[in-house]
Specification:
The protein has about 700 residues and is an alpha+beta fold. The chain is built from 20 helices and 31 strands.
Length: about 700
Amino acid sequence: MDVKRDILWRVYLSYIIIVAICIAILGKAFYIQQIQGSYWRGLSDSLHQRIVSIPAERGTIYSEDGQMLSTNMPRFDILIDFRVAPLHEKNGKLFREKIDTVCDSLAYLFKDKSPLQYKEELTKAFEANEGNYELKKKIDYHEYLKITGFPLFKLGRYKSGLIAIEKNTRLNPYENIGYRTIGLARDENKVGLESAYDTVLAGQNGRQLVRAIAGGVTVPVQEGEFEVAPETGKDIVSNIDVFIQQVTEKALNKMMISNDAQTGVAMVMEVKTGKIKAIANLGKIGEGRYAENLNYATRVTEPGSTFKLVTLLNALEHGVKLEDKINLEGGLWSYGGKQVKDAEQHGMHETTVLHAFEESSNVGMAKLIVNNFIANPQVYYKQLSKLRLDSNSGIDLQGEGRPQITRPGDKLWAVTTLPWMGFGYNIAIAPIQTLTLYNSIANNGIMMRPYLVNAIKEEGRVIKSIEPKAYPWMVASPSTIKSLHTALEGVCINGTAKKLFVNTLYKVAGKTGTALVSNGTKFYSEGIFQSSFVGYFPAENPQYTIAVIIINKPHAANHFGASVAGPVWKEIADRLYSTYIQNKMELAPSLRVKDSSMFNYALSNNAFKTIIKNIPIPFIDSSMTKEWIQVQGVGVKVKASPQLISDSTMPNIVGMKLQDALWICEKKGLQVKCEGKGKVVSQSIAQGQVIIKGQQIQIQLNSN
């Protein structure tokens, strides 16, 4: 009996303990769920939810006329969460009803797979209940809109499982135009304006609560809700003119390919303001292929003969006159145990300082240094500081090289240092500094700071304007500036660039440069020449200053400044003149009819013969039965001569009927604006001037 009681007692005790444990477990479960539930749910969420930084939308870089040069373009990664309940209801009825149409639409939109391939892949992912199926990556906004309009996906995220993750990608709408100047912000290695104005463009990042889904992808907990909303970056408006930039790059690239050059830079500056309208930087990246790989505009190099302008300026400020005599020693002169050589052994001896400059004589410039500054070099160096050649240009780009100038007392200083500096050696400056220097001469001695950005905008409003900055001193006296104008024009009329500008419709002032450049440890032994031309136009009223510097391949046969850099300069200037300058100039007096006794008309040969038949006056006919002729005369003396209609130049249309004038102009691709009635009495594009397809011409008609 005692044994039985003892066994029962143990059983009851065990039962009571089990019941107590169950009650404790249930109580604990109730406590965790009801009392601590919010805490544990929050802790669970914290493992799957987190605050992430949301990048701010970067500001846009515009050209001066409002075209986008660098901007954000949305790109979308498209995922599908096949775990959403509506897709699996009624044995996947919704999915199976819509899948064929969806696959047809995807195949038609992307043209990368057949509808059957899409169906197989999507069905497999659906049956596997994938939560992070990657449908497409980096599609554009228009493709995103089309996908969200497909039969299944238009039902929304929570019925179709479609997830779109938006990412902003930095793109240049003009592709690689001005890449090193504009820059790109695709990674941490920003360059150009993207780097210089990074803090302005970047904006302020926001914060958002997101949750993790399969595959490490995160999606917002609440779409459009932010802990801190991102602040969009501000926009900047550059001085870049897209047309000028394209013209500059095309002209430079053409010469680089034809001469198999290594590197090249071409820049255009607005004279009165210092605005940089274009910078083209090209480096060789393969056979016949060039790209904007480095900013050669801000990399220092020995300037060569374009630096002779500085020597002449210093000499003129020191009392030298252009008409003073100087002995060129036949083109070869010994000084300090070394020889100064001109490019050619020309045999010239006594000549003027002006002629020595026009012919780019190294001997002449070295002698100017020796005769005026060798006893007191500091006078020469003081002028270099006045020209800001011992400091950076101040352009709003990062990474400009520091000028390298050898001074008295330096380790490399020698008796020949200063004379060789007189023709562009023993000194290294950036091409942007050379451009700024020549622009100051074009601007009558006022040096403008070169700059690329003229305004900062926020939501379309200008919040900061960046005005042109002139340095508060003249780079030289008015008399010296006037003499320099004469000398630079003389180079293009009588000197090393005279062949380049024969029959040019505008007057040019500039300087050629041909320099042997060092190539690392091999120094000057590889025969690498730098070809340069820097100048401004129209010389009588300068509008633009252009610099072209090209470094050629070793031992290039064609390496002179006038034949390599010069044609690039001229091609750019021709396009700028015909597009931006000539229409602002007054019509040529020769195209205006003021005196009826003197005339110069163009008309068809048939019309002329009809007139002569009805008005019998004596005339000389040398028209050779050409379709269009030019009739000139005074009073009753009349001469008919053939008018050759060239494809590239403007003919004389004064005196023509509007119908004939329109036929000729429109055949050449010109856009015609006309005023008045009757016959043509004036034309805005002068006879013989180079024309470009799409260019506008204004025609004035008489009132009859």
